[in-house]
Amino acid sequence: MTKSRYFGLAVIVAVLLVLPQFLQNGFHYDLVIRMAINAVIVLGLNLLIGFAGQISLGHAGFIGIGAYASAILTSHFNWHPLAAMAAGAAAAGLLAALVARPIFKLKGHYLAMATLGLGFILAIAMKNEGAYTGGPDGMPVVPMTVAGWEIAGEKAWYWVMALVLSISVWASLNLIDSPFGRALRALHGSEVASQVVGVDVVRYKVAIFVLSAVFASIMGSVTAHYVGFVTPNVADFFHSIELVTMVVIGGMASVYGSVVGAVLLTALPQALATFEGWETVAFGAILMLSMIFLPKGLVPTLAAKLGRSE
Fold it and tell me: How far is CA 277 from its chain centroid?
């Protein structure tokens, strides 16, 4: 890992340490916590889309698996929250491993449609299974406890998510600098060339899809325990598109772009609320202008203009 990347991680940690001094109420804490949750999900999704070059338009389905695993196992079967979270992550990883091989035989828009269909299937299952999930109305989730300590209140959740985000950024940076990360970048550039030099393309595609699904599932569980309630909306199509947009706006194949994209697109709807009915128009215009003038994403474009690496 280069010194510049260590510097970027240090900046994130410093901001997280100082930020509570500027958060004035519970709403501000809630917004920052949601930014951090989205950032961790987008980090995993960017490893799949940005670094490996594989699209996923149904990724919110894995978030739903984690959220409902935590809700169902803790409420109906009295599992410990951490055990339920681990079970959800294992279920999401297993499902991703099972569907990855047939899905990733497809290319282009066929691949996009396949992942989109997977997301729709998961969302419909969560909405229709009323006995355990509460159907469209959703269901409550018990508080998160760790070693007998109940995580309650925005300040406690802020520090938990600050730690999780810092570790996730550090892990992502190390991953992309590892032989595994170099293999991902190679198959993104050319699958044929990657095979020629000995990269097992299928195995790496499956592995990164599973890893990104586990990222999403864990954050789904975290979201469920933080909010205290879960509905099928957590797994819907629009949530998946929102996550992909965060990847694109921040910058594909950019770890810090993932964080910036998640922060901006989580905060933007709140900032546009003053437009009173024109929020969607303003939001679309901003995204369109971003794609025109920042085609590679915000962080890579600014880094290139400054003559620096990410």
Answer: 28
